[in-house]
Amino acid sequence: MPYTDMTDVALQNALVTQQSRLQAFTQRELSLNMARGKPSSAQLDLSLALLDTLSSTSDYYAEDGTDCRNYGVLYGLPEARRLMATLLDDDPEHVLVGGNSSLSIMYDLLAEFWLFGTLGSAPWNTLPKVKWLCPVPGYDRHFAITESFGMEMIPVPLSDDGPDMDLVETLVSDDDTIKGIWCVPTYSNPSGITYSDDTVRRLAAMKCAAEDFRILWDNAYCVHHLFDETDTQEHVLDIARTCLQAGNPHRACKFASTSKITFPGAGIAAMAASEQVLAEVASHMGVRTIGYDKLNQLRHVRFLQDAHGIATHMSKHAALIRPKFELVWSMLENGLKDTDCTWTKPRGGYFILFQGPQGTAHRIVELAASAGVKLTAAGAPFPLGIDPNDAFIRLAPTLPTEDELKSALEVFICCAQIACIEAELAQRA
Ligand code: PMP
Fold first, then answer.
1. Does one domain contain both 74 and 29?
2. Would you call 217 helix, strand, or coil by DSSP?
């Protein structure tokens, strides 16, 4: 019976039952982690052959004859730019291959805007105020970057097809201190939604009071489909071409990496932008480095080869992680049917976004931690960690084994039930 229909006494009894179950879980001294979107070691094994593509006896030469052991080639090897262009849905000439992290390219880009401005605009640090649009729920590490520069972050609700565009258009049209927006267009972190073509067109064409308004288009999950059927796989209209057609050629900066394709932290990352913005980025980059790791670029090209190679490889990831998502969905469905909790069922990406009744997220995370299950901090998907309803929890099912995931979910469901009953009782008091 739904908790909302139960008598106070029945609810109290249900609470006692769940509390003693939690007690029993606590005695098992579990140590489980559903906090971060990391691949499992079985997923990492899929890329071990990447390490064999270069040994002391193989050749180290790129297709243009570059000796990859040596300095140079700031924009990246031509074949690596071609490979990353397939992820970025752009022309290789618009692509720059950086180091091991797309997040660090995003950070550096904003640091450059902050210190030097862009395409002749005033450095942002000289302005009295800089604001940034943050679709929520969103990615905590994006928000940490804009927070670190002291930008005022404006939360914008994210719905099933992207940010609330009526609100975005209104905000950017007459406030020139709003300098940009974070976007994760495909299988968004953490809600799993994918932007509609209409959203892309509106972002590209909207009138912005700030001439140097930038869309940071983070396509971290562009090939991370959970299901095979190609007709249901998400493919988002390209923001750069759409911006160009709308007369805003410099608005979009796109990012991707192989972090969740090969090895997180040991992959390759890239950005795409207009020729002028890319040249500006390269000019700053060239002060910072003589060039990135071309041996790793070569390894990635030899291992992944092209878009088809990436798709084949990603279907192996999907075969490993899809059962984990399905396990979470079926356990939540069975375990929480008496509550008002909801959760997402994304077609790709790395997360399930759980929503409990108002005021329960912190409590669930705290209870789970007491029983040895680490979850993403409540509030993490919001700027400054503040979820106004204290309702959302990001679940990351990829890292644990299926057995571990099952144990973690049993604890999670028990904690969610306790928090829901407590919230219902508090409401009645
Ligand atoms: N962007 C998003 C949306 C992510 O979810 C992640 C990883 N969790 C990253 C970027 C990090 O990417 P990288 O390893 O290339 O820095």
1. no
2. strand
Chain segment 361-391, per-residue pLDDT in tens: 999 999 999 999 999 999 999 999 999 999 9
Q: Do 79 and 105 fall within a single domain?
A: yes
129 and 276, same structural domain?
Answer: yes
Give the pLDDT of residue 269: 98
Of the residues 304, 331, 361, which one is the last residue of a structural domain? 304
Calculate mean pLDDT across residues 212-239. Answer: 87
Identify the pLDDT of residue 1: 85
Average pLDDT over residues 163-191: 97
User: Are 124 and 225 members of one domain?
Assistant: yes
Half-sphere exposure of 27 (CA within 13 A, CB side): 6
Residue 184 Cβ inside 6 Å of ligand 1? The answer reads: yes
Query: How far away, in angstroms, is 223 Cα from ligand 1 center?
Result: 13
Identify whether the C-beta of residue 241 lies closer than 8 Å to the C-beta of residue 272. Answer: no
**Phi and psi at residue 286, to the nearest 5°:** -65, -20
**Ligand 1, from 254, 257, 271, 296: best to mutate by most atoms within 8 Å of Cβ?**
257
One domain, residues 89 and 140: yes
**In CATH, what number is assigned to the domain containing residue 125?**
3.40.640.10
* 296 plus 333 within the same structural domain: no
pLDDT at 231 over 50: no
Nearest CA to 183 out of 139, 229, 121 is that of: 139
Q: Is the CB of 199 under 6 A from ligand 1?
A: no
Q: What is the pTM of this model?
A: 0.96
CA gap 160, 163 in Å, rounded: 8
Asked if residue 49 is part of any domain, the answer here is: no
Cα–Cα dist 323/226, whole Å: 9
DSSP H helices in 53-161: 78-88, 102-116, 140-148
Domain that holds residue 19: 3-44+320-428
Would the CB of 258 count as within 6 Å of ligand 1? no
pLDDT in tens, 101-139: 999 999 999 999 999 999 999 999 999 999 999 999 999
CB 336 less than 6 A from any atom of ligand 1: no
Q: 103: Cβ below 6 Å to ligand 1? A: yes
pLDDT for 385 equals: 97
Q: Pick from 101, 103, 194, 258 the residue to mutate for probing ligand 1's pocket: most ligand atoms within 8 Å of its CB.
A: 103
Q: Are residues 258 and 335 in the same domain?
A: no
> Which CATH number does the domain housing residue 400 bear?
3.90.1150.10
Domains: count for the chain: 2
222 and 361 co-located in one domain:
no
DSSP-based three-state secondary structure for 218: strand
Q: Establish whether this prediction's ipTM goes over 0.90.
A: yes
